[in-house]
Amino acid sequence: MKTRRIAYEEILKIISLCEAVKTGGLSPFEVDVREKLKILRKYLPYWKTLDEIINDAEAFNELVTVIKLQGDSLKMQASMLYMDSELLAMKIKTLSRESLARSLLESWRPIVALDQLTIQRIQEAIDYWNTLPPLSERMKREETSLTPLKTLTLEDTYKLKVLTQAEIKERIEKLLKELKEKADGKGEVDYWSFITEETYEETIEKAYYVSFLISQGYVQLEYDPVEGRYTLKLEFEKSKGDSSIPILLSYDGWLKVRKHE
């Protein structure tokens, strides 16, 4: 079971890596396609359910897309060679007069045009300006008051009596203790493995308190775009500066991780 979970996480990392390439976050040449195909071949015998087979096929399809992006990039780089002045001059010399004329017509974009005002158009312009209100009235703007957006802080939860300060403090201390117990020798814990609970609601709640630990500098969240992995790193001193890493915690994503625990 543990080997299947590791294999499944490797497949998810491949999919995440390829998605980063498609969104422009990584160069397609940063993906070692041959190595990733070896990983797919290695873990193929472990798949037993339909969802596992579908994810394996999705990972393979994403690698095919990366290969296509690599080819498109090479074609674009090769086509840029024709912009060289000497090569362009040689190509022009080989064209016939008809081909040159056709190319000129297809690429010609006139930048000068001749236009003439008539008495009728001038009269229309005068009538238009005469119907406009005075400039002093047109420049007036209605005064509006904008209410700034607000966020719900922990202090607000105290005031609303959603949670007491003692309850929140107890949960945070318990969570920090659990994090230290599960950390490896480097003081790191996999984010998804740590926050995943028996129910989706419990997972959301735990992710919220983890975000509080991160914002307060007790824990640092790191993201590896190559591996597609989020890691919680213990910090015994509060970090300086603010940072934000958005993470989509959907129900479907929770089901996938929960199924392979």
List the helices and strands and how they pair.
Layout: H1 2-22, H2 33-43, H3 50-79, H4 85-94, H5 97-107, H6 119-131, H7 135-138, H8 154-159, H9 165-182, E1 188-190, H10 191-195, H11 200-215, E2 219-224, E3 229-234, H12 251-259
Antiparallel strand pairs: 1-3, 2-3
CATH architecture of the largest domain: Orthogonal Bundle
The major sheet is characterized as: 3 strands, antiparallel
How far do the termini sit from each other? 8 Å
The CATH homologous superfamily of the largest domain: Structural maintenance of chromosome 1. Chain E
Share of β-strand residues: 5-15%
Please name the CATH topology of the largest domain: Arc Repressor Mutant, subunit A
Q: What number of domains?
A: 2
State the low-pLDDT regions, or none. Answer: none
The average pLDDT is 78
- Proportion of helical residues: 55-70%
**Highest CATH level, the class of the largest domain:** Mainly Alpha
Shape: flat
Radius of gyration: 31 Å
> How many runs of DSSP E, i.e. beta strands?
3
Describe the strand arrangement of the main beta sheet, using strand numbers: 1-3-2
Give the helix/strand class: mainly alpha
Q: Give the SSE order as H and E letters.
A: HHHHHHHHHEHHEEH
User: Helical segment tally?
Assistant: 12
Plain-language structure description:
With 261 residues, the protein is mainly α. The chain has two domains: 2-81; 154-259, Structural maintenance of chromosome 1. Chain E (Arc Repressor Mutant, subunit A). Helix content is 59%, strand content 6%. It contains twelve helices and three strands; from the N terminus they run αααααααααβααββα. It has a three-stranded antiparallel β-sheet. β2 (219-224) and β3 (229-234) form a beta hairpin. α9 packs across α11 (200-215). It is flat.
